[in-house]
Amino acid sequence: MRSLTESTFTYNSQHEDDTDQLGKWLAAFLRPGAVLTLDGDLGAGKTRFSQGFAKAMGIKETVNSPTFTIIKEYEGAKLPFYHMDMYRISQEEADELGLEDYFYGAGVTLIEWSSLIEDLLPQERLSITIALQGDQTRVFHLTPHGEPYVSWCVQMKENGHLQ
């Protein structure tokens, strides 16, 4: 039998507003040092999710994909937001960026294409994979690794937000 920390929760998004809502629910749990990883095919909605999540954090600036800058830092209403995109760099290059300073710092880190730097990720994190189904429908798979991420997902499931 799988432990709760190995469980995957799902969320179905039929519209961008649904994606924003998931970001809003998650932002309510945030604390310094929180790490969320985001994976999915091109066009699955990673950047769209990042935008809704950032908005829920109180980010006023336009949030776009940091593909060419790799890391963008934003000041949120309560916590800094570190938005990363690992699509164009190798694990060796990522290792030289000092990512642990972000992962264990005072802000919240969201990493797009995190599977490309799997060995560098903190053990405790919330892994999110987005699967595109049709033009608008996305299925979000949330896998918590350690506390408090398990608690976040369990609470969201108890509130009827996740399956």
From TrEMBL:
Its main location: cytoplasm. InterPro entries: P-loop_NTPase (IPR027417), T6A_TsaE (IPR003442). Keywords: ATP-binding, Cytoplasm, Magnesium, Metal-binding, Nucleotide-binding, tRNA processing. Pfam families: TsaE (PF02367). It is found in: Cytoplasm. The keyword ATP-binding applies. Belongs to the TsaE family. NCBIfam families: T6A_YjeE. This is tRNA threonylcarbamoyladenosine biosynthesis protein TsaE. It comes from Paenibacillus aceris. The lineage of its organism: Bacteria, Bacillati, Bacillota, Bacilli, Bacillales.
